[in-house]
Amino acid sequence: MIIGYTRPYSEDGDLDTQLKALQKYNCDKIYEEKTNSVKKRVEFDHMLASLNEGDTVVVYKFYCIADSTRHLIELSEYFSEHHIHFISILDEVDTSTVEGTIFFNMMKRVGEFQHDVISERTKAGLQEAKLKGKSGGRPKKPDYNVHRALDMYWSKKYTIAQITEATGISKTTLYRYLDN
């Protein structure tokens, strides 16, 4: 089965161009998002749930289906594991071909490299800061604020919102001290 997927890339995005391009692939079903929201991709979820081994997913361009390089790599791995082909029309990628498979394998390696570089830089930065006597994390709250927050809590006269506002101690921090 050939499945098309569209998503506008702006709030007032027009899907006509994408739909015309998908029609050339004779899609059996096209899932159309109505919004470009990253958090609410209802049609995307429906599309993923409907896929079966041997299906082909067709999109106009990578940005229609993925929100980042990492997301695109994760999707390509998912498609590969489930024997689903993927075509991005404008990016000229078709994983049913050797070239398309090689492209995604290269992207996976680049993503791993990018992750490794960020990880190494972070470790080096933390090590350098440690040598300079600096520690990471948020500054510790003054003990008197913590004690005041705990006293207010145990008095049962104040709500959590009142305690956090009066002391500057977050609800999470307050509960963490209560658990100790």
UniProtKB/TrEMBL annotation:
It comes from the Bacteria. It comes from Priestia flexa. Belongs to the site-specific recombinase resolvase family. This is Recombinase family protein. Keywords: DNA recombination, DNA-binding. Gene3D superfamilies: Resolvase, N-terminal catalytic domain. SUPFAM superfamilies: Homeodomain-like, Resolvase-like. The keyword DNA-binding applies. Residues 1-133 form the Resolvase/invertase-type recombinase catalytic domain. InterPro entries: Homeodomain-like_sf (IPR009057), Resolv_N (IPR006119), Resolvase-like_N_sf (IPR036162), Resolvase_HTH_dom (IPR006120), SSR_resolvase (IPR050639).
